UniProtKB/TrEMBL annotation:
Leader sequence residues: 1-20
Protein name as annotated: Uncharacterized protein
PANTHER family xrefs: BETA-FRUCTOFURANOSIDASE, INSOLUBLE ISOENZYME CWINV1-RELATED
Span of domain Glycosyl hydrolase family 32 C-terminal: 376-573
Sequence similarity: Belongs to the glycosyl hydrolase 32 family.
Chain ranges passing through the membrane: none
Keywords, comma-separated and alphabetical: Glycoprotein, Glycosidase, Hydrolase, Signal
Top-level taxon of origin: Eukaryota
Length: 582
């Protein structure tokens, strides 16, 4: 009997012993856990995500070239057709009418020419003035070293809204490293933008002194490209992968802007530059201004490259945005990797998902982006439960009953009557959300908070993933209360072989009125959360061993010393969309 079988057996026994005391039950599980020399299996199909994007099987990583064409959304992604570990990478391709229901097509780009024979890596799509999308991607052209060049591919049949066939013209590669560029660190072309008769795009790289750089290349015809001597921007971070560069409306408006929109006539356009840090494995961005003549980008916050404002403080990498002309919005895709072992990935036959696409726009403060799950995801909502005006006393928790929550959408508004009891922020941890959450996790009682949700929790709550807030009074006196948002998966599973660090970010919100909201998309082995209307986001991968399928529960908890009111909580079961035949 497998370890999971043993746990299931323990459950059955528990049911038979209905009436047996809690103690007996806990002992039973402990005995079971101890007996399980091998950890509980995570191969259970009930742990497979339901409404997050994924193929039927195998390994996936970076989203590539998201685009909209003739009524269809397209997503391409790095995919191993042969297994659940990285390798043999091709561009898999799926199409959708609504960004939620997906149909898999055959791979769009596979190694086939000298300049991509050893790899078809990440890239982006650009819409030509006649409406045709063009893909630019990184090819590896040597077997021994990862020597990287950039290639282009065009749709073979522009009348085909599904863009099934892609052609690689004979003038590939169109960009090769040179002039001191490190050929093994030269990849991931962005969507190109056009101004004054020139196309421009960025390619990520690193200098000899370990500065991440975004090189600008310019072209009149999309065939001959030349590098602008100075990069658009650089910072002392190590290699920049998957750069993304796009304009946003400065006024806090949700509407997105096409990538080639120019600042002239729109005085208040700002730019976002995002890079994926190869060394630290996360995506950070800055907001700033772009000088087209000088081909330079300057972050508004001079310390922006050190502060590392992130799209997401959890598992979220190699992201890319695109402009959706159908709904005039900018949408962000990002890859979420696994928290289990490669051996487990091989056993379960799949690894990696894409986060739910998010609409992104500039916050009214101008200092950060806001992100929110695309509205289409709400079409998956089914049976619901509501809580209203429920006070959660210190040390108390409340179960959200009446629906299955292994696959759910939860939206909750909290109200804290008084912030008087907020803990003082330890100056040594000021500014370091990650360490702060590590030191003050969900189990550490606080003043105001921790309060939030326990999701994917077992009935006895031995297993639970906490998504919560904790409010501090500022370390150096004065100023507004500091709000920490944290996901603590350290109790998410009895399986010891998981990567489950706490993830955290500060929430730049004024909580002096006591109000803060939290939305969490739960999907069997994903917990994707949006704090304060999308100011701080955290995606976490968890593999419960008890809180699986019907056994997954949802609670609101308060481990602070002050009352917390749930002004309103709505939770919905989420249906499974068409998902590439998965
Ligand atoms: C191009 O696509 C259209 C629309 O799908 C189809 O009707 C037509 O047969 C295709 N042409 C070729 C040459 O495949
Ligand atoms: C290129 O980058 C690789 C990986 O960082 C490094 O090992 C190598 O020394 C670099 N080559 C040059 C010429 O800088
Ligand atoms: C995701 O997996 C964890 C655990 O293996 C690693 O620590 C992360 O570096 C990895 N993230 C990415 C983006 O590769």
């Amino acid at each position: 009997m497998g370890a999971l079988g043993r746990v299931a057996w323990a459950w059955l026994l528990l049911l038979q012993l209905a009436g047996a005391s809690h103690v007996v039950y806990e002992n039973l599980l402990e005995v079971e856990a101890a007996a399980a020399a091998v950890p509980p299996s995570i191969v259970d199909p009930l742990l497979r995500t339901g409404y997050h994007f994924q193929p039927r099987k195998n390994w996936i990583n970076d989203p590539n070239a998201p685009l909209y064409y003739k009524g269809w959304y397209h997503i391409f992604y790095q995919y191993n057709p042969k297994g659940a570990v990285w390798g043999n990478i091709v561009w898999a391709h799926s199409v959708s009418r609504d960004l939620i229901n997906w149909v898999a097509l055959k791979p769009a780009i596979e190694p086939s020419i000298p300049s991509d024979k050893y790899g078809c890596w990440s890239g982006s799509a650009t819409t030509m003035p006649d409406g045709t999308p063009t893909i630019m991607y990184t090819g590896v052209n040597r077997p021994d070293v990862n020597y990287q060049v950039q290639n282009v591919a065009y749709p073979r049949n522009r009348s085909d809204p599904l863009l099934r066939e892609w052609a690689k013209p004979s003038h590939n590669p169109i960009i090769v490293p040179g002039g001191g560029v490190n050929a093994t660190q030269f990849r991931d072309p962005t969507t190109a933008w056009r101004a004054g008769g020139h196309w421009r795009l960025l390619i990520g790289s690193v200098t000899g002194s370990a500065r991440g750089v975004a090189y600008v290349y310019r072209s009149r015809d999309f065939k001959r490209w030349t590098r602008v001597p100075r990069p658009l921007h650089s910072a002392a971070t190590g290699m920049w992968e998957c750069p993304d560069f796009y304009p946003v409306e400065a006024a806090g408006r949700r509407e997105g802007l096409e990538t080639s929109v120019s600042g002239s006539g729109r005085a208040r356009v700002k730019y976002v530059l995002k890079n994926s840090l190869d060394l630290r494995r996360y995506d950070y961005y800055t907001i700033g201004t772009y000088d087209r003549r000088a081909e330079r980008y300057v972050p508004d916050d001079p310390a922006g490259d050190e502060r590392h404002l992130r799209y997401d403080y959890g598992n979220f990498y190699a992201s890319k945005t695109f402009y959706d002309p159908a709904k005039r919005r900018r949408i962000l895709w990002g890859w979420a990797n696994e928290s289990d072992t490669s051996a487990d990935d091989v056993a379960k036959g799949w690894a990696g998902i894409q986060a739910i696409p998010r609409t992104v726009w500039l916050d009214r403060s101008g200092k950060q982006l806001l992100q929110w799950p695309i509205e289409e995801v709400e079409a998956l909502r089914g049976k619901s439960a509501t809580l209203k005006d429920r006070v959660i006393k210190p040390g108390q928790h409340l179960e959200v009953m009446g629906l299955q929550t292994a696959q759910a959408d939860v939206d909750v508004s909290f109200e804290v009557p008084t912030l008087a009891g907020a803990e003082r922020l330890d100056p040594a941890l000021d500014g370091d959300a990650q360490r702060l959450c590590g030191a003050r996790g969900a189990a550490v009682e606080g003043g105001v908070g921790p309060f939030g949700l326990w999701v994917l929790a077992s009935a006895d709550r031995r297993e639970r993933t906490a998504v919560f807030f904790r409010v501090f009074s500022p370390a150096r006196g004065g100023g507004k209360p500091v709000v920490l948002m944290c996901t603590d998966p350290t109790k998410s599973s009895l399986n010891p072989n998981l990567y489950q660090p706490t993830f955290a970010g500060f929430v730049d919100t004024d909580i002096s009125n006591g109000k803060i909201s939290l939305r969490t998309l739960i999907d069997r082995s994903v917990v994707e959360s949006f704090g304060a209307g999308g100011k701080t986001c955290i995606l976490s991968r968890v593999y419960p061993s008890l809180a699986i399928g019907k056994n997954a529960r949802l609670y609101v908890f308060n481990s602070g010393k002050a009352d917390v009111k749930v002004s309103r909580l709505m939770a919905w079961e989420m249906k499974k969309p068409l998902m590439n035949g998965a």
